Amino acid sequence: METLHHVHADDVAQSFMKALTSWNSAVGESFHIVSEQALTLRGYATAMATWYGQKTKLSFLPWEEWKKTVNQSDAALTWDHIAHSPNFSIEKAKKLLNYQPHYTSLRAIQESVKQYFENEPNSTGIISDNQKTITDTII
Predict the structure, then answer these.
(1) How far is 41 from 18, CA to CA, in rounded Å?
(2) Could you report the per-residue pLDDT of 16-31, keeping only the tens digit for each?
(3) DSSP per residue over the chain, as a string?
(4) What is the pLDDT of residues 24-69, one digit of tens each?
């Protein structure tokens, strides 16, 4: 199943700071900096629907059928995103940099969505009581 492995900007910044303070361990190395765990698309959709106070209504279509339901640009972006199904290990960053992400993939996305609706000029800015609480609950 396709996965998404998001990272919060604060965790990226943390990794840079840790690399600077762990210079001898970091120099010449490369690190995956993401949350602790990726989410499946189904887990992501279910968690976000719940966050919006909605029941999950998912149906699955083969890719060739699904891409006909969206415009060509959205289909291409979606394919590029899911075809790579990112799921990375942070063990090397944990070991060499003492990297410990503060955000789960879900929390990072929920905070991004919340910030978008609070700051987007064309948005109503309405955040429900349920959305005020950012959660790590995945159903």
Answers:
(1) 31
(2) 999 999 999 999 999 9
(3) --EE----HHHHHHHHHHHHHTHHHHTT-------SS-EEHHHHHHHHHHHTT---------HHHHGGGS-HHHHHHHHHHHHH------HHHHHHH----S--HHHHHHHHHHHHHHH-TTS-----HHHHS------
(4) 999 999 999 999 998 888 998 999 999 888 899 888 889 899 999 9
Residue 117's domain comprises 3-132
Number of domains in the chain: 1
CB atoms within 10 A of CB 60: 8
Task: Flag whether 114 is in a domain.
Answer: yes
Q: Does the pTM exceed 0.85?
A: no
138 inside domain: no
CB burial of 69-101 (b: ≥16 within 10 Å; e: otherwise) equals: eeeeeeeeebeeeeeeeeebebeebeebbebeb
Residue 57 covered by a domain: yes
